[in-house]
Amino acid sequence: MKIGIPTEIKNNESRVSITPAGVFELSKQNHEIFLQFNAGLASGFSNQAYQEAGAVILDHIEDVYETAELIVKVKEPIEAEYNLIKENQLVFTYFHFASSQQLTQAMLKAKAICIAYETVQDEDSSLPLLTPMSEVAGRMATQQGAKYLEKPIKGKGILLGGVPGVSPGKVLVLGAGVVGIQAAKMAAGLGAHVTILDISMKRLRYVNDIMPSHVVTEFSNEYNIRKHIKTADLIIGAVLIAGAKAPKLITADMLKEMTPGTVMVDVAVDQGGCFETTKPTTHENPTYIIDNVVHYCVTNMPGAVPYTSTLALTNVTFPYVMQLANLGWQKACDLNKSLAKGLSMVNGKVICPEVKKAFPELVN
Predict the structure, then answer these.
(1) Domain map of the chain by residue range?
(2) What residues act catalytically?
(3) Nearest Cα to 183, choosing from 249, 266, 125, 247?
(4) Residues forming the annotated binding site for substrate?
(5) Which residues are annotated as a binding site?
């Protein structure tokens, strides 16, 4: 199969979808890999490393899309790529369709076969291709939140861990999934006082078992959210409903109950965000302020640490890439039920139930 690896062109997205090691393994199976010039450079992988592994280097993104049967990406295609995608072309990447009607319409028009990383799902309901990036994003949420609490960037001027004689900062985490636990782990490591809210008692019991005593849990409801936002210094939105839009847990009116300089980090922004005031931002312009509350809503947080993120992501995506290349998408999805869960669109028709629910007007 002819496999294309385009350079990611989303703002400050530096990850790459396949490493030279992956190219080497695919080449051994007689697949042809076409890499756009410098696609792996920001992640620490040179063109020479890819060539030595068996890839053909193409100068332009148009050439990669024109040549490949299978496009493997990291982030969803952006507008400049829409017209490059061909009918029957297989595209394997993060899509997050439910948060973008424009992207959904574009892929329907292209009549491509779209398999979304974020909805590939194992029998135990875990999301194997989302988990490593959730781990990175969860840890980064605390790291970035701590930075934006600094006064020069309009935060409260609080050091999350405090110092002897000064109380630590308070972190509120909405959601006790992978993102939430990683965010809480980082915040606890800094010495902050952490509260995690979730609607699953099973998850809250798990958090209680693994976290230190300064991480506390409470059941998530509007009353408890309103109670905690009044004193929280950093609020991290870590809510996920696989393939669907995130629920709006913090409404616009709640911002007036927060103290000026509070920082909110919405890791659910790819799925529409769990704050009503969320607007997607970039690493170039990561924050904005509403009612004196700092919002950090970068849609590709792990892209800021591309070496770590690329290796973490490709460790889990590559076996699926190999299956798709060896078997074709139909047979691969027939044999691998986890992969079949990621099938979002086929030749102009929506397959994913959550996308159908998000955009019923687009369902054929």
Answers:
(1) 2-120+308-362, 131-304
(2) 96, 270
(3) 266
(4) 15, 75
(5) 15, 75, 134, 198, 203, 220, 239-240, 267-270, 298-301
Residues annotated within a binding site for NAD(+): 134, 198, 203, 220, 239-240, 267-270, 298-301
Fold agreement between 2-120+308-362 and 131-304 = yes
Element containing residue 5 per DSSP (H, E):
strand 2-5
pLDDT digits (tens, 9 = 90+) for 156-190: 999 999 999 999 999 999 999 999 999 999 999 99
Nearest to 184, CA basis, from 161, 158, 207, 200: 207
What CATH number was assigned to the domain covering residues 131-304? 3.40.50.720
Percent of the chain past pLDDT 70, that is, above it, reads 99
Residue 67: closest CA among 40, 95, 32: 32
Cα–Cα distance between 113 and 199 in angstroms, integer? 35
Q: DSSP labels for 245-304?
A: PPP--B-GGGGGGSPTT-EEEEGGGGGT-SBTT---B-SSS-EEEETTEEEE-BTTGGGG
CATH topology of domain 2-120+308-362: Rossmann fold (3.40.50)
H or E element at residue 40: none
Predicted confidence band at 265 (pLDDT cuts at 50, 70, 90)? very high
Tokens of 306: 């591309």
pLDDT in tens, 212-239: 999 999 999 999 999 999 999 999 999 9
